[in-house]
Write a structure and sequence with these properties.
This protein is of the alpha/beta class. It has helices at 10-18, 27-40, 59-73, 104-118, 133-136, 141-148, 153-156, 160-167, 174-190, 202-214, 251-258, 266-273, 278-289, 295-310, 313-328, 350-356, 363-371; strands spanning 23-25, 45-50, 77-82, 128-131, 194-198, 221-225, 338-340, 347-349, 375-377, 380-381, 388-390, 393-399, 403-409. The protein has a six-stranded mixed β-sheet with strand order 1-6-5-2-3-4, sandwiched between helices. α12 packs parallel to α14 (295-310) and α14 crosses α15 (313-328). The longest helix is centred in the middle third of the chain and has 17 residues, at 174-190. The model is unreliable at 93-98 (pLDDT under 50).
Length: 410
């Protein structure tokens, strides 16, 4: 006899599933699937495809992972698909260019790193891990041709990034056309009931729904999540744009970066990146709307919460104390990395110094940092990009808000 699974009532499930969600396509089918799940005491298969090209996860990635974790909390089966095969194909990035393919070994290794980090959010034991090379690697050329016959080029070009590239005369390779079909076969292989993804993945997810029908499988419901805006308040969170908060970063980095987000993103971050209760969210919303309340206090609470989630409550308090010491009391961090200057070097201009210690990848970037007024030596702001720094004794170089280094000069 199958073990009885506890599922919350339908309305409770839908309340949690809809929290922070952009779209459910179609919602009525999800309700039907959940009703059937309750009636048969059988969990739904919830699919999330893992992109193995980005092994370092940030809060932007956590948004959809947290939704998968919520389905786990409701009693459903979370299935994380490591795209070791599709990673070798490469996929358009959404920036009008093709993402470079990985080797099989790189895709597998990145997949391991992805799951290790994702385990900070998902229930490690209850998550089913599969690699799509298990079925895609077995397909023959005949199988691929038959699969390709089930979809049209006209439909494929409805994808936004394909459309832009086609109109702009930017090449689209045939292997990129095959990518959504390969991803759709993942849904066929695991008989996905619900597939999760960001709003930028909507087209690919819908292709999976169509291809499941072609194979006689009940089509999956699509659930898309918003793309989290980064700390700059403009672009979606991305490591390449340096507007990210990494879930593996140190407590002080998570805390400090969280305090740098614009005030108008505080509530959205609470909804998408934490498990604050509905009552707490209501309270935060009211406080943020009250002009008498300083939003910085609510942001500090958010920063502590995020550090607690990925480290500990003790680490959160320590990170806050250190932040206050540096930025409120204008002190220095308790621990500062040291850099031993070559004894033969007696002076350097500020741009060379910044590059030498690794605080900027180029003199051009160092020039920008100085021009923005974010560089000090022993507390003195450096305004001149040609400033010569005498390297004697011990000096503290600060670049930006959180980068400190102690120069040991002999």
């Amino acid at each position: 006899m199958d073990k009885k699974i506890f599922f919350p009532p339908l309305n409770e499930q839908m309340d949690l599933i809809k929290r922070g969600t952009s779209e459910i396509i179609p919602e009525e089918e999800l309700v039907q699937k959940l009703e059937k799940s309750l009636k048969e005491n059988k969990p739904l298969n919830i699919k999330l495809g893992c992109d193995p090209t980005r092994p370092d996860l940030h809060l932007g990635h956590s948004v959809v992972l947290r939704k998968l974790a919520q389905f786990q909390q409701l009693g459903h089966q979370a299935i994380l698909i490591i795209g070791d095969f599709t990673g070798m194909i490469g996929d358009p990035s959404g920036r009008n260019s093709s993402r470079p393919p990985l080797s099989f070994e790189e895709a597998r290794e990145n997949g391991k790193s992805y799951f290790e980090q994702a385990s900070k959010i998902l229930d490690r034991v209850k998550t089913k891990i599969v690699h799509n090379s298990e079925w895609l690697g077995k397909m023959t050329f005949e199988d691929v041709i038959k699969l390709a016959s089930k979809y049209t080029i006209a439909r494929m070009l409805e994808r936004d990034d394909f459309t832009k590239r086609y109109k702009g005369g930017i090449p689209i390779s045939m292997h990129e056309i095959l990518y959504p079909l390969a991803q759709a076969m993942d849904s066929v292989a695991i008989k996905s009931d619900v597939e999760l993804g960001g709003t930028d993945q909507k087209f690919n997810l819908l292709v999976g729904r169509d291809i499941q029908r072609e194979f006689g499988i009940a089509p999956q419901v699509i659930l898309t999540m918003p793309l989290l805006v980064g700390t700059d308040g403009v672009e979606k969170m991305s490591k390449s744009l340096d507007n990210y908060i990494g879930i593996n970063e140190s407590p002080k980095e998570i805390y400090g970066k969280t305090l740098s987000i614009p005030d108008d993103l505080i509530y959205l971050y609470y909804v998408l990146t934490t498990d604050a209760t509905n009552q707490e969210l209501k309270q935060f919303g009211q406080e943020l709307a009250d002009k008498e309340v300083n939003p910085r206090n609510i942001k500090r609470s958010l920063a502590r919460k995020l550090v607690e989630m990925y480290h500990s409550s003790e680490a959160a308090l320590d990170a806050e104390a250190e932040f206050d010491n540096i930025f409120v009391k204008k002190g220095l961090p308790d621990e500062i990395e040291e850099f031993n200057v070559d004894p033969s070097i007696k002076e350097l201009d500020i741009l060379d110094l910044i590059v030498t210690v690794g605080f900027a990848p180029s003199k051009g970037e160092a020039r920008r940092l100085v021009s923005q007024g974010g560089v000090t030596v022993d507390g003195e702001k450096i305004a001149d990009i040609k400033e010569i720094i005498k390297l004697d004794g011990t000096k503290i170089l600060k670049v930006g808000k959180r980068k400190f280094i102690k120069l040991i000069c002999n």
